[in-house]
Design a protein that fits this description.
Keywords: Membrane, Transmembrane, Transmembrane helix. The chain has 96 residues and is mainly alpha-helical. Helices cover 75% and strands 0% of the residues.
């Protein structure tokens, strides 16, 4: 059961880390400084937690529930968190 919990938590941590890095890629720090700082800290924390999980440290059920709640919140509010009119290349941002 512990191995399954570690695998599920590591997968959720990867999703959280990728979502926060994608938010930082899309938005500029000057436009939304507090949100970018929060997502930057979230990405750092998720990266550290991922190393803990890969080292075999078992998460508590409360930590897994917390990570699941972050993912549910991000999925429900994805239109508010991420801009709708962005492109992957970021060419428009580099022109300014």
């Amino acid at each position: 059961m512990s191995t399954l919990l570690i695998a599920i938590d590591a997968m959720m941590i990867c999703l959280i880390m990728l979502a926060s890095l994608d938010y930082l890629r899309v938005n500029q720090f000057v436009e939304r400084p507090w949100q970018c700082a929060a997502f930057f800290l979230l990405a750092i924390a998720a990266f550290g937690l991922l190393f803990d999980r890969l080292a075999g440290m078992a998460p508590s059920a409360w930590a897994v529930l917390f990570h699941l709640s972050l993912i549910i919140y991000a999925v429900v509010h994805r239109c508010e968190i991420f801009d709708r009119g962005w492109t992957w290349a970021g060419v428009e941002r580099r022109r300014h």
